[in-house]
Write a structure and sequence with these properties.
The chain has 5 helices and 31 strands. By secondary structure, the protein is mainly β. It has 4 domains: 31 residues; 143 residues, Immunoglobulin-like; 131 residues, Sandwich (Immunoglobulin-like), CATH 2.60.40.420; 120 residues, Cupredoxins -  blue copper proteins (Immunoglobulin-like, Sandwich). A 6-stranded mixed sheet has the order 1-13-21-20-15-18, with no helix packed on it. A hairpin with a 6-residue loop joins strand 22 and strand 23. The longest helix has 29 residues. About 8% of the residues have low confidence. The structure holds copper (II) ion. GO terms for molecular function: copper ion binding; oxidoreductase activity. InterPro entries: Cu-oxidase-like_N, Cu-oxidase_2nd, Cu-oxidase_C, Cu-oxidase_fam, Cu_oxidase_CS, Cu_oxidase_Cu_BS, Cupredoxin.
Length: 501
C-alpha cells in the first residue's frame, strides 16, 4: 500500500478510537455503579426516561416495586409550645433508627424525631420562632431552613455544625409569606449521605392570605405533603449509600413518597391539594396525571403564584417545590387517578366517598407579586456552573470555607446572570439554590419565564447552555451559600458563599 493510503487508514482508526474512548468514559462516569438490578423488582420501565436531561445524562431507571400498595404515610404535625406573646418553641432531635419500607429487614435510616424524614414545622408570618435541636447521630450535622429568609447565623449551613450529642438553639422572626419550605442537614461534604439516609422535613408558613384563600387546607383530608425521593435497596433492604453513591448524583430505582412505596390516598370527590417536594439527591421529575387531565399549580418554592396556572406536566428538580390542585369533583366513588412521573406511578388518588361538592372554581387571585421581566445587558453578578463529577465548579472554583466569593448589601436589588456552561460531555441540569432569600426569575435565555415560574423561587433548573437572569434582594446580613442542589455536586464543591453587609 502507498504511504498516503496507510496514513488515511491510520488517521481514521485513531479518530474512531478517540470517539469510542469518549463514549466509554461517559458511560462509566455517569452510570457507575452498575448494574442496577433490584432482586424483587420487575423489568425496567420502558419509554421516556423522565430523568434524561437535555445534556442526555444517563440515570438509573425507575422500576415498579412489587410491594403491595400502602396508605401514604403522613408526617406528624410538630407540636410546639405557644407563649403568651405568640412566639412558638419547638424541639427536634436528629437520630438513627430502623424503618420498615418493605417486607423483610428494616432499613437503617436517619430521621428527625423518628426513624425516617421528620415532622412538619408550622410557623406564621410575623411570629417569633425558637427551635432547640439535638444531634443524636455519631457525626456532625446541621439544621438548614431551605427557603427561609433568616440571618445567616441561624441558617444552618456548613458554618454551623452540630457535634454528636450537641445541641443548637435558633431564634428568628418569620419575615415571609405563606409557603411550603423544607429543612434538611447541610454539613460540609456530608449533605448527600445524610439526606439520602432520611433527613428532611417540611415547614409550612401560613399568613392572613393563606388563611383567607378558599383552597383545600384540611391536612391529610384534601391537603397532602408529597415528598418524592428515589432510593436503592440492597439484598438486605439497606441503603448502603457509600457503595452506590454517584459523583453526579445518587439515585435509586425505587420511588418513595413520604417514605411509602406504592402509596395511595383516600379522598372524597373534591379538589385535592398536593404540596410536592423534590427531596431526592439528584433525580428530576416530570409530574403528570394518568388521566392526562390538567391540574393547577397554585404555589412555587416561596409562596402562592399570582393566579392558578393550568398545567399538563410539571418538572421539579432537586430542592424545588410546587403546590398543585387536582380536581376529582367529577369522579365517582371507586374511581382513581394517578400522579405519574413520566410513565412511573408516584401516587394513587382513590376516591372512596362521593359527596356532592359545591362546584366552585379556584380563587382567581392568589397573590400580588409585582412582575416585570426586563433582563439587563450588564448583570450585577455572573455565575457559571460547569463540569461533572469531581470537576464541578462555579466560576471555575470549588467551595472553600475560607474564601468569600461574592459581596452584596442588604436592601439592594441585584440582577444575577447564571450560566450553565455546555461542556464537552454534554453537560447536566444543575439545580441552582440560593440561601436566605426568595428571588424572581427575570428571563430564561432572553425569554420571559413560564407562568408557573413567575413567583417566588429559591431553586431553579439550569439546563446545559442556559443563561438565566434572576432578581435578588437579601433581607439579612451574614454569609450565605449558593450551590447546585444535586447533593453530590454540592458535596464535591459546586458551592460558593456570598457576604451580605
Ligand atoms: Cu450540579
Amino acid at each position: 500500500m502507498k504511504k498516503p493510503v496507510i496514513s488515511i487508514i491510520l488517521g481514521i482508526s485513531l479518530l474512531l478510537l478517540a470517539i469510542v474512548s469518549v463514549l466509554l468514559f461517559r458511560q462509566i462516569s455517569t452510570q457507575s455503579p452498575n448494574p442496577f438490578t433490584n432482586q424483587d423488582n420487575g423489568t425496567p420501565l420502558m419509554g421516556m426516561n423522565p430523568n434524561m436531561g437535555m445534556g442526555g445524562e444517563v440515570t438509573m431507571e425507575l422500576v415498579p416495586s412489587k410491594q403491595e400498595t400502602k396508605e401514604l404515610a403522613l408526617p406528624p404535625l410538630l407540636e410546639g409550645t405557644l407563649s403568651s406573646d405568640g412566639s412558638i418553641s419547638y424541639t427536634i432531635a436528629t437520630q438513627e433508627g430502623g424503618t420498615q419500607f418493605k417486607e423483610g429487614n428494616a432499613t437503617q435510616t436517619f430521621g428527625y424525631n423518628g426513624s425516617y424524614l421528620g415532622p412538619i414545622i408550622r410557623i406564621r408570618k410575623g411570629q417569633n420562632v425558637h427551635l432547640t435541636t439535638v444531634n443524636k447521630l455519631e457525626e456532625n450535622t446541621s439544621f438548614h431552613w431551605h427557603g427561609l429568609k433568616i440571618p445567616s447565623n441561624v441558617d444552618g449551613g456548613p458554618h454551623s455544625p452540630i457535634k454528636p450529642n450537641g445541641t443548637a438553639t435558633v431564634d428568628f422572626t418569620v419575615m415571609q409569606e405563606a409557603a411550603t419550605l423544607w429543612f434538611h442537614p447541610h454539613p460540609e461534604g456530608r449533605t448527600g449521605e445524610q439526606v439520602y439516609n432520611g433527613l428532611a422535613g417540611l415547614i409550612y408558613v401560613e399568613d392572613e392570605n393563606s388563611d383567607s384563600l378558599d383552597l383545600p387546607k384540611d391536612y391529610g383530608i384534601n391537603d397532602f405533603p408529597i415528598i418524592v425521593q428515589d432510593r436503592f435497596f440492597d439484598e438486605d433492604n439497606q441503603f448502603n449509600y457509600q457503595d452506590i453513591q454517584n459523583m453526579d448524583g445518587t439515585q435509586g430505582d425505587t420511588l418513595l413518597v413520604n417514605g411509602t412505596i406504592n402509596p395511595y390516598i383516600e379522598v372524597k370527590n373534591e379538589k385535592i391539594r398536593l404540596r410536592l417536594v423534590n427531596g431526592s439527591n439528584a433525580r428530576n421529575y416530570q409530574f403528570n396525571l394518568s388521566s392526562k387531565e390538567s391540574f393547577y399549580q397554585i404555589a412555587s418554592d416561596g409562596g402562592f403564584l399570582n393566579e392558578p396556572v393550568q398545567m399538563d406536566t410539571l418538572q421539579l428538580v432537586p430542592g424545588e417545590r410546587a403546590e398543585i390542585v387536582v380536581d376529582v369533583s367529577d369522579y365517582k366513588k371507586g374511581d382513581n387517578v394517578k400522579l405519574m412521573n413520566g410513565n412511573a406511578e408516584v401516587l394513587s388518588i382513590n376516591v372512596v366517598e362521593g359527596i356532592n361538592p359545591e362546584i366552585k372554581s379556584l380563587p382567581e387571585t392568589l397573590n400580588k407579586i409585582s412582575t416585570s421581566f426586563n433582563s439587563v445587558s450588564v448583570p450585577d453578578k455572573e455565575l457559571t456552573f460547569s463540569g461533572m463529577g469531581n470537576m464541578v465548579a462555579i466560576n471555575g472554583k470549588q467551595f472553600d470555607m475560607e474564601r468569600i466569593d461574592l459581596q452584596a448589601k442588604t436592601g439592594t436589588t441585584e440582577i444575577w446572570e447564571i450560566n450553565n456552561s455546555n461542556d464537552m460531555m454534554g453537560g447536566m441540569i444543575h439545580p441552582f439554590h440560593l440561601h436566605g432569600v426568595q428571588f424572581k426569575v427575570l428571563d430564561r435565555n432572553g425569554k420571559v419565564p413560564p407562568a408557573n415560574e413567575q413567583g417566588w423561587k429559591d431553586t431553579i433548573a439550569l439546563y446545559p447552555g442556559e443563561k438565566v437572569q434572576i432578581e435578588v434582594e437579601f433581607p439579612e446580613k451574614g454569609i450565605f451559600m449558593y450551590h447546585c442542589h444535586i447533593l453530590e455536586h454540592e458535596d464535591n464543591g459546586m458551592m460558593g458563599q456570598i457576604i451580605v453587609e
